[in-house]
Design brief:
- This protein has 106 residues and is α+β, with helices and mostly antiparallel strands.
- The chain has two domains: 72 residues, hypothetical protein PF0899 fold, CATH 3.30.2320.20; 33 residues, no CATH class.
- A four-stranded mixed sheet has the order 2-1-4-3. A two-stranded antiparallel ribbon has the order 5-6.
- Strand 3 and strand 4 form a beta hairpin.
Amino acid sequence: MEIARAAKFLGNSLEAKVVLEATPDQEQFLKSFGNILADVFIVSQVEFGKAKGDWVYSSEELTGLKVGIEKAEGQKCVRCWKYSTFVSKDPQHPDLCQRCVGIVTS
């Protein structure tokens, strides 16, 4: 990710979506962490699928694991700064992501 940032593809890590291309066992293990993977990687989004594009890296230690870096989808939440496709969907809190709407309304 730092190489993508140095090349000005990303301004900061929260502008990123990580795409993990993994073996079935690796994917099962990584999915066991649930929704915290984005927080662990300090990115806005994580998904599993085909890593493609200019910013794909293969693990030297974990055979079969590839990590792709893409621009995150959606708009920036003004509270947490993560990008989300949910931002602007809640009429009472149009600048917040779904997670932050839940926090400020609880």
